[in-house]
Amino acid sequence: MRLVVIAALAVVVSGCGGAAPQDCPSSPRLDLSDVDPNDDTLSFQYPLDVVEDPPQDADFCEHRAWSGGMFHAAEDYWRPPGTEVRSIADGVVSFSGRMGGYGWLVIVAHPEMNAYSLYGHLSPSRWRVEPGPVAKGDLLGYLGDEWENGGSRDEPLVAHLHLGVRAGQRTHYPGKGEWRWMAGWIKQCPSDLGWLQPSAVITAQTIPIGGFAGPAGGVVERWWTELLLVAAIVLGPVFWIVRSVRRRKPVSLFAVAVVVGGVAWYLTTRGVVLFAPIYLTAAVGFVAGVVILARRPRGNPSK
Question: Are residues 257 and 125 part of one domain?
């Protein structure tokens, strides 16, 4: 029985396996030269100024040896730093912030189309859009310099736009694991996880119907990494809260509330979606500390 449990955990931790290159063929980008960005009747437009792609760009589902057996969940468009990046469609900016190897990352939700678009490697030092409604063609930001777009002075990253389009909404996906909402290179075939080929969406002027109606994986398959992370963060403080309540130590409870609240805030900025239980744990610690402090005897009155 123990061996069965260990084997099952190994399958889960491995992300249920990766696709073989032949099962996830690369899709060369489609010609977008006929997609006029000034045509108001179109639902989607090209996000950059010129439809011209150098041969170094990474295509959708492309598999490269240096990637460690992973697949590209987007299309890359190489342009000089400072190039304007615009929304491919009407929507709402649901995320605009720093995100690790992306430099500055912008997510635009398109609720009416049940999809969202992702714009990575933008500049954190130039103007960038704030969360809120945007129209097709609105400026989202600028491509970042090689040392700020996810690269560094020691390891610069060639300026380019990482453009992703995905079925569903950002909150349908976790912030960690293969199913994460901001994935760039992943072990599983992107098409199986809801990612769509951006140039095909722009050319067709629609989100494919029936090809991927929504997240296909089960709750455990999609969310196990984030659930494990949240559980690991919550269980320790909960134990400490119970211990502090029994010993009636409000200072310890306030300390737990501050630390856990800070961790929750940090994880929120890093894209973790299941942050509510962590905030709740911090709130419980704070309230318990206030209650114990309020019920503490004020001292014996003088006789």
Answer: no
